[in-house]
Amino acid sequence: MSPTSPHHDADALYDEADAERVVVEPPKRVDAPVRTPYERDRARVVHAASSRRLAAKTQVVGPQSDDFVRNRLTHSLEVAQVARDLSRALGSQPDIAETAALAHDLGHPPFGHNGERALADVAGACGGFEGNAQTLRLLTRLEAKTFDGDASVGLNLTRATLDACTKYPWVRAGEGPDAAKFGVYDDDLAVFTWMRGAAPERRRCLEAQVMDLADDVAYSVHDVEDGVVAGRLDLTTLDRAAVWETLRHWYLPDAADDALDDALDALCAVDSWPTTTYDGSRRHLAELKNLTSDLIGRFCGDVQQATFAAGPGPFVRYRADLVLPEQTLLEIAVLKGIAAHYVMQAADRVAALEHQRELLAELVGVLLDRGPDALDRPFADDWRDAADDAARLRVVVDQVASLTDASAVARHARLLGSST
Hints:
The protein is built from 18 helices and 2 strands. It is an all-alpha fold. Among the domains are: 213 residues, Orthogonal Bundle (Hypothetical protein af1432); 68 residues, no CATH class. Helix 4 packs antiparallel against helix 5, helix 4 crosses helix 10 and helix 6 packs across helix 15. The termini are far apart. The N terminus is likely disordered.
């Protein structure tokens, strides 16, 4: 980056420790474009094979089911745009937040969160499975770019960028509901400890908070948009009682009807909220796109204003926190509840989800039985280096998590002689 870059003031807020990498890298050739460490991080994620695979992984519905609906890659691009804009508005380094957003779903397996649940069910003996922990593993080990002796250190990203990618900066907490969300497996603790350095225990850096909010904003708004275009919901005739029941089951068990009603009323008061049923015309497509833009601007603007009002900053790393107004959280939850009720728990979806979970469990089982001959070369090498059954199970889980929806189905059919 040149000295006249618009981001140079933000760059000055990050120190040498923030820009440190596990493996020290020599300077680039003198005639190459000058880039900050964080721009180089962004480029590494953009060019990663795991990023390309996101195009064939489920966001809400399968990527082959419709030309309009989002897949994991298009979702990640949209999250990255929201994160970059909010980060820049706050005065932090936008490349860090954008890279974290681009990387935030890299660890997700085939079939989205449904696949994540399936792998978690079979991975207990090797420490469980969690998409965010898998992202850290991928960035620091599986997506090979840099080696430290004989060991891959993944993309060798900077400390600040890796930390921003870490949504849950803690280890798995035993069994039960508290174990559902965590950010690192036990055998990745060394790089996690290096990355966290002197960070406060279990506290997310500001850039990770921006990434997390951008993810929530993007999928709450865009899942509703996809549902409208797919004909699964009509924003002019919502069954509030049914939606609130779903919302409490999925997201906010203690939310009161009155508070949810007020939040939906506030959303309906947005000028671009539809007053007629979507008909597929260009005019309605444009109106729907304006609604998504207005809602994203509403949520990010309210958070930015609340964050500025809470303190002077600077809004980087551990020197400040993002402030999320309760009203904003409720409005985002309402949109999530609408999508969950009309799209995620629809009868045709429920049957498909069960089939997907069975497919992944069977695939893990047959790969464990057949061993390295049935694995891709990198995972076959990992299998041969594995010390015990738990380590071999982790290798198989890594292999299955790396697959796309279509390649998981194809691998299952080839190994088990079954079809979709």
